Amino acid sequence: QVQLAESGGGLVQPGGSLRLSCTASARIFTIGTMAWYRQAPGKERELVAALTRFGRTNYADSVKGRFTISRDNAKNTVYLQMNNLKNEDTAVYYCASSGDYWGQGTQVTVSS
C-alpha cells in the first residue's frame, strides 16, 4: 500500500508560478512511474506529466515548456514546477503512482 500526499496548491495570477509536492509513503525509486493529473470543473481528468523510475518524462502538449516534473528520492517526493501559469491551468491536481495509488488532490487556481 502506497500513500500519497500533495501540497503546494493555491491561488496565483496568470504568468505566476507554483510548485506542487507529492510525498510518498514508500521509496519512490521502487515505484514504476509517478505522475501528476488534473481535473478542471466539468472536464475529465487528464495526464499532466509523468516520470518513470528511469527518469523518462512525458508531458501533456498544453504544459510542455512550462511545467517540469522531478523527484527527490531521498525525500520520497515528486515535484511539479509550474511556470507561466494560465487561467486554463485551474484545476484540482492529483499525484498518482503505478499500482493505481492516488493522492487527495490539491487545488490550483489561476486568476487575476
Task: Provide an overview of this structure.
0% of the residues lie in helices and 51% in strands. It has strands at residues 4-7, 10-12, 18-24, 33-39, 46-52, 57-59, 67-72, 77-82, 91-97, 101-102, 106-110. A hairpin with a 4-residue loop joins strand 5 (46-52) and strand 6.
Oligomer: single chain
Main β sheet profile? 7 strands, mixed
As a percent range, the share of strand residues is: over 45%
Taken from the alpha-carbon principal axes, the silhouette is globular
Rg measurement, Å: 13 Å
State the share of residues found in helices, binned by percent: under 10%
Order of helices and strands: EEEEEEEEEEE
**Poorly predicted tracts of residues:** none
Average pLDDT reading? 95
Question: Helical stretch count?
Answer: 0
Distance between the termini: 40 Å
Helix-strand makeup class: mainly beta
Please provide the count of β strands: 11
Top keywords for this entry?
single chain, 112 residues, mainly beta, 51% strand
How is this structure best summarized?
The protein is mostly beta strands and about 110 residues long. The chain has strands at about 5, 10, 20-25, 35-40, 45-50, 55-60, 65-70, 75-80, 90-95, 100, 105-110.
Helix-strand layout with pairing:
Blueprint: E1 4-7, E2 10-12, E3 18-24, E4 33-39, E5 46-52, E6 57-59, E7 67-72, E8 77-82, E9 91-97, E10 101-102, E11 106-110
Parallel strand pairs: 2-11
Antiparallel strand pairs: 1-3, 3-8, 4-5, 4-9, 5-6, 7-8, 9-10, 9-11
